[in-house]
Each structure stands twice: as structure tokens, then as C-alpha cells.
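Please go through the protein record below and see whether the fold suits the sequence. Record follows.
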Amino acid sequence: MMTAILFLCGISGIQAQKIVFTPQWTAQAQFAGYYVAQEKGFYREAGVEVEIVHPSVTQSAMTRMFNKTSQATTLQLCQAMELADSGTKLVNILQTSMNNAMVIVSARGKDPLKQKGERVGIWSVGFGQLAICMSIKEGLDYDWVRFSTNVNLFVSGALDATLAMSYNEYYQLLQAGMELTDENVYRFCDHGYNVQEDGLYVTLDYYRKHKDQVHRFAQASRRGWEWAANHQEETLDIVMKYVKSNRVASNRIMQRLMLKEVLRLQIDRESKKREFRLRPDMVKRASYLMAENGMLQREVKYEELIER
């Protein structure tokens, strides 16, 4: 899940601009609703021209941001808050995640909370803010070891534990033959760290100049996710088209597991509904945790991230 922090370039002009949308990672079911909206014509019906461009080795998230070649991206809430804290003004136009997917998986059946000072894998491209907060708060003092795209370091025995997403690396570990139980898997959502993750963002500048277009893009994207939830096998056909065209090493079984879990994480625990909204209480919780542990210089408020 490489941080594709791809933002708007503040394009001026009266006519609607094409929206180049870059997900935060390579092609996979994590972004199924957007693929559906494109392939089923929902964007076209909404009067929005959208191009989906994934990050690559030569065109990373930061490169595309600085080159101003993308107008929309997905970000985890903690990432968006870090950017807001640094002065980047963003607008969350659609929230897809209602629950946190991060887990820590320990080797040899150990309890992650009893591995003080041990070597724990963390993504080199980000996404580990909550884990760092938890490590500090619980006094674990993990020795963080950066990895890029897969679980090889952990499977090889080079790490004592690793971070994983319940819709991605968790299933990679199962496929690799790892035994995962309640004893050696720590789920952040069950221990006071249930902070929302993926949302769809644009910069405030672009939002103000293209408000109607942005709203139509967000609504068509939501329609794509709602369709995906009700047509999962056909959605997988669409996902695999993107996986293959982008030459991603995966398979339909893995993508089916991912899609099912991503859709589950979209259902709010309290309302039992797919709400597609940023929750003020989760923003406050994340801001408190990150500021308390030195990851934010100030409180980032809910009002900073929503429609102006």
C-alpha cells in the first residue's frame, strides 16, 4: 500500500477538467469500487472524465504530487492528518473505510504485547502511524525494520513480528503456511485503535475551483462501491482486468479474499451500515493518539478535512 499522495494541481479554467485519480497502491481489490465506477460507466453517466493511474517505480506518489499530475488520491486518515499538520490543505470527499485493518503478527505463537524491543516489520512507504503510537503508549520500544512490498522478511525468520493489513499481507501469510491465531495476532481495531483508514481526497484549492465536478466524482465512486458489494464475482472480473493490465503478481483467490475483507471493513460497527462518511470521533481519537506520541505538532480537527 505505497503512499500515493497525489494531489491536485490547482488547474484553472471554466470547463470541467479530467480527473486523474491515483490510488495509494498498485492495482488490487482494495480499490474495486473505483474500477467498477469506471468500467460500468458510472463516471461517464455522472458527466465526469476520470483516468485511473496507479503509482509506479518511476512515478511514485511524491513524484506525481510534485509534478502535479494527479487530482485525487486515496489516503489513510492518519496520513491525511500528518499532511494537514504540515500545512497541506485537503478535503475528504468520500470515506470508504469505517474500521482499522492493521494487525501485528508474531512468529512462533508469541504475544505481540510481550515482544518488547524485538524486530518488527513496518512499511517503508508509511501506513504505520498507529502502530508507532501503540508501541510508544504500551512501552514496547519495538525495533522497527522497514520492508517494501511483501512478507518475505518475516516468513524467512529475519523478523520477530510484522505489521500487516487484514485484507492483504494477512492473507499472504496464510498462503505462506503461517499459523495465525488469537495468541499471535494483535488487531488494532479491538484494542482502542479503531481509526478509519482509506478515504478519497483532493486538495482544498482544487475542490473550491471544481466543487460540482468533485461531488459528481465522489457520488459515482460511491455508486461503484455499492455495486461492488452486491455483485462481487463480476467485480472480481473487473479487478482482475486491472491486476493483469498492470502486471501485478496476484490471483483471483487472493483478490476475492481481499474484496470480501475490504467490504466488511466498510460497515460501521455501531450502525451496521456502509456509511461512507468520516467520523468526527475517530478523527479526534487519531489526533489525540498522534499528538500525544509526537507524530503531530497540534490537534488536527475534523472540520479541517471535510467540505468547506
